[in-house]
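Protein entry
_____________
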Amino acid sequence: MKKPIVFFIFLISFASCKKKEYNCFCGTTMLYSQNYGGGQTYFVSNNKPMTEKMTEKQGKSVCDQEAENISDVYKSSWLSYGNSLNDISITTNCTLE
């Protein structure tokens, strides 16, 4: 009976030491169609610190969601000026640090 309990305690302590605080570092690229002169613009977002400790897998998931949120904000802004998403490609990538 003692061995499973000791193993369980070891497993919990091992899993908790794998958790740490991460940051998301994000960048957004906007590629314009020829209707808007072509070219591209690159925006760098500030690091977004995560306020709670998490595993690397959880951190990547948070960064992926952050990338989607940032892209949505840029797309909404672009559309609010009466533009079409056919005239632009907006891509945001976030890396876990």
